[in-house]
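Subject: Aldehyde dehydrogenase family protein structure
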Amino acid sequence: MTDTSTRSADGRDVDELDIAPENGWNALFLDGEWVPAGDRDLIDVENPATRTALTAVPSATEDDVDEAYAIAEEAQSAWGQRPPQERAAIVSDACALLGEYADDLEWLFAVECGGVELKADFETQLAQGTMEVGAGLAMRDGGRRKDSVTPGKENLLVREPAGVVGVITPWNFPLYLTSRVVAPAIALGNSVVLKPDEHTPLMGGLVLARVFEEAGLPDGVLNVVPGYGHEIGDHFSGHPVPSVMSFTGSSEVGRGVGQRAVGAYTEPALELGGNNAHVVLPDADLERAIDAGAFGSFTHQGQECISINRHVVHESLYDEYVAGLADRAEQLPIGDPREEGTLVGPVINESQRDKIVGFLEESVANGATVEAGGGHDGLFIEPTVLSGVTSDMPVACNEHFGPVAPVISFETDEEAIEIVNDTEYGLSGSVHSTDVARARDVADAMETGMVHINDQPLNDEPHVAFGGVGASGLGRYNDEWIMDTLTTLKWISIQREPREYPY
Ligand code: NAD
């Protein structure tokens, strides 16, 4: 059954949408052509809210991956030589098209990703932001001149495109997490082969191919091969052609991707999982801390690498904090993301639901108390607040990736820091205090790539360095930091007068 009864945000039927999946682009995108499935297997894409079929896309094979890399390699050099303003203009045009299609995208976010309107708007803005910043990189002078220790020599550092960039992305913020690599890569003169997640091949890849095609990107510069990670992932990430392997996803898969990439002399850029803590010190503004805590835990059902995974709250505020958070959780409207006013939609699939519910049930069996929520129906999990949580409970020591807020109590700032750092992850975090210097001391001691004082961890700004330490990844995304990854510096020296050699 196909989910055709739905309407877009502006009231059009699905078959009237410009980017409805049945308009011929639920295909592979190779060398500027939409390649239908032929005798390939299909990936069935399901609406997680209704559990009905949305569409099916071809499942790329290892041969398709080889072909995509060969096409990208062939296309790169001509593209890299195009004037920077031309490359920037195409990325800017693709960015503008995302704005034009915002209503269609909102519908697709709902039916493919289970994302509510708020999240759709937020993600579209982020995708546009990263495309604007990415386009600007084309014109950024990255080269340098360095004095030489050798008389008569001039040293030049020339910035060149890295070459072919392989991109693997997850399902949770598919359009943004894909755009944040594809846009700067293309602007900087690289070509790209993209493997979106099998749950979100449209928003994670084919939508971008569609808008870049319309923006006039030359054939072969962007190629999209939807496929199962367990089928083509090893071949994709260990391939000899790409110079950069950009991976966003779980730490477990990312470790293997990084190892295979390095084995093929490909530079890995890894954005991985998190176990982010929201620390509430005894002098915090309680209402602000609770507001931030609810937003950081329940937005997009807690399915972000930078969601709050643990609330770490001083014992003097603990009961009030738990009660306030439970109150917020109970008020959040839960349902089909296409229904107006919905703030909590479904989680992406059964295996994620089962994992989250398993962590919850085991933690309750180990002594945690459900203060709000706790139930589930289909792929909908109620926003849940747990008190009496300790660091060793499954909801706290794992990345639960669900609408679940485990609250842990502490006595001293030192103990809070110990709890925060008791994880292999180190992505984001937050600290609440009315004494900014005290919050700053805690932020300094947190072993993470990012910390937000008097806010919550869910922050990403396309012009600010984003990334983690430890099991949360290698390298930084956004602006000049991703530019370093997506380009290579060549040292060219010019010996302007004869040099005296020792023999
Ligand atoms: P996942 O690792 O299971 O899948 C991510 C991608 O990897 C998918 O495209 C998948 O098909 C592919 N893949 C699977 N096996 C592969 C293999 N052997 N080789 C190559 N690719 C393979 O992750 P997920 O469950 O889809 O996403 C959630 C995870 O992503 C969470 O851990 C989350 O924290 C993390 N994440 C991190 C960031 C960040 O910026 N740090 C952002 C979003 C999500």
